[in-house]
Amino acid sequence: MRQRLTEGNISAQLFKLTLPLVWGILAIVAFNLADTYFVGQLGTQELAAMSFTFPVVSTFGSLAMGLGIGAASIIARAIGEGDQLRVQRLTTNSLTLALAIVGVFIVVGLLTIDPLFTALGATPDILPFVRDYMQIWYLGMIFLVVPMVGNSAIRAAGNTATPSMIMIVAAGINIALDPLFILGMAGLPRLELQGAALATVISRALTLMASLVVLHYKEHLLCFQRPKLSAMLRCWLDILHIGIPAAMTSMITPISVGMITSLLATYGEEAVAAFGVASRVESFALTALFALAASMGPFVGQNWGAKAYGRVQHALTVSFQFCLFWGMLMAVVLAALGKQLVILFNSNPEVVAIAALYLLIVPITYAPAGIIQISSATFNALGKPLASVMMTSMRMFVLYIPLAYLGAHFWDIQGVFVATGLSNLLTGIGAYLWNQRTCKLRPALSESAL
Questions:
Q1: What is the C-alpha to C-alpha distance for residues 296 and 151, in angstroms, rounded to an integer?
Q2: How far apart are CA 450 and CA 278, in angstroms?
Q3: Which residues, 6 or more positions from 378, have their beta carbon under 8 angstroms from its beta carbon?
Q4: Angle at the Cα of 164 (from 162 to 168), degrees rounded to 5?
């Protein structure tokens, strides 16, 4: 085990960390886009049902992400401090914690499908499609949560290439299985939304096996000695100290999106379908910023643990500059090509018009949205997760949701999309100032060392 990120050129290291993550996140986006594309071939009702599942699926994905962030934060700092035994114990206990938590949520999820999605605005015509998908998805949730935590531990060690390769392979398998299971190709039964869920579960199961193999045989991050109960509980508390706020931070966004989906449902199933398609396209456009934010976790964690504070400050400067560049580029691209991209998923004129409007307005504020992601990842890596919770809560509950309802009242759907952009902009400015103040409390590294 070695401190891979505490020496060398900072920009080059961030690039090496981020590039594999770009491909890995693109694979996840392709995963979701494939589901959206093939389900879109079934009809607008099925596509709307998939859009209703998105905030719920994202909420549970955020739970897994939060646990992974909590584990990665303390693992990266332990690596920076050179504490190998603690790293192995933290990694192993993070996986057992994820396994225990996911069992509870599977039961809760299966028992609340109808009331939850009815509350989100699903009509009696849409609800059976939602039920077809979520019953299978909940049963396979273990294959989502545990490998996400495992891959976070691998990235904490400075290895972003292997988790990305695992995600790419999983996406390839899902894309191959989607037309077979959803549309019933190659002589297989036509399972429609059940087929989409089944393809997801099978591909995720393979990521679980792959991540465990890498953790044990390549990174040597697992410990098979039976821990004392008190020691294991202490590790769980260390992980949850960051993991619970990080999960709350990650879950706030899909919960808020669920509320916005409910608002858009008042405009009809076409509006919900359009929002679902636009969100998938947006995920693709923000891939580079998500990857850079994920890279900041291991980089900041290892350098903060090694007390190389100036390297952290310099990395933040480089990252914020890239956010400005990428945000402007995507705003131009989506303004020009948004309608054509939406047509690839659904040709309903109303769906196309609404989704294209979203992709014209919201991308203008992708740069501050990226700054929010970078700042949140940095706070978590520093062991200050409550800052991320406060920042995200302000963005969603104080700005986004009230402004969306206000905008809908005065300007209909267009007002909702303007509210999205305003919440990105205002929160991004605040995140930048807060993050700069926090990290400058430490002494800067000399310019010659950068």
A1: 15
A2: 40
A3: 296, 300, 312, 316, 435, 439
A4: 120
Q: What pTM did the predictor assign?
A: 0.72
Q: Write phi, then psi, for 35 (nearest 5 degrees).
A: -60, -45
For 264-306, give the secondary structure using H, E and C: HHCCCHHHHHHHHHHHHHHHHHCHHHHHHHHHHHHHHHHHHHC
182: nearest Cα among 348, 337, 33, 42: 42
- Would you write out the chain's pLDDT as a tens digit for each of its 450 residues? 454 677 778 888 888 888 888 888 788 777 777 888 888 888 888 888 888 888 788 777 777 777 888 888 888 777 777 777 778 888 888 888 888 888 888 888 899 999 988 888 888 888 999 999 999 999 888 887 888 888 888 887 778 788 888 888 888 999 999 999 998 888 888 998 899 999 989 998 888 888 888 888 887 778 777 777 887 888 888 888 887 887 777 777 777 887 888 898 888 888 888 888 898 889 889 989 988 998 888 888 888 877 888 888 889 999 999 999 999 999 999 999 989 998 888 788 898 999 999 999 999 999 999 999 999 888 888 878 888 888 888 998 899 999 999 999 999 899 999 999 999 999 999 999 888 887 765 544 433 333
Burial of 351: CB neighbours in 10 Å, binned 0-12, 13-18, 19+: buried
Distance from CA of residue 343 to its chain's centroid?
25
Single-letter residue type at 297: G
Burial bucket for residue 189 (CB in 10 Å: 0-12, 13-18, 19+) = exposed
HSE-CB for 228 with a 13 A CA cutoff: 3
